[in-house]
Design goal:
The protein contains four helices and no strands. By secondary structure, it is mainly alpha-helical.
Length: 113
């Protein structure tokens, strides 16, 4: 068994990218299940996921783990984040004050529509 060199929180999109480089025949059972799951349910590419994660960490002052959780869930409305994240004062600067704010006041600046 290989020794763990580094631990880092990564999004499901990044998991999909990493496992996509491995031949399915060489995957163990857990890797195949994981790859099957992310192939079915992940709809955003890893570059966009990484960009969103960086923006959440920088602009909202979230930890990497917190940012990854939010990127994985990708709530469409600000209010929905209360179900997964209780320290809302960190998220407030990331609300979308843009042109669509009147039509969609709960939109996030971080997530593209």
């Amino acid at each position: 068994m290989e020794e763990v060199q580094k631990k880092q929180a990564i999004s499901l999109s990044e998991v999909k990218e990493i496992l996509g480089k491995v031949d399915v025949e060489e995957m163990d059972q857990i890797q195949r299940w994981t790859y099957d799951y992310v192939s079915k349910f992940v709809t955003i590419d890893s570059k966009n996921a990484k960009d969103m994660k960086k923006k959440l960490i920088k602009d909202c002052e979230l930890t990497e783990d917190e940012a990854v959780e939010i990127v994985n869930i990708r709530p469409k409305k600000y209010g929905r984040i209360t179900f997964i994240y209780f320290r809302l004062e960190k998220i407030n600067p990331c609300r979308n004050p843009g042109k669509n704010a009147q039509n969609n006041p709960g939109a996030f600046l971080i997530f593209p529509e």
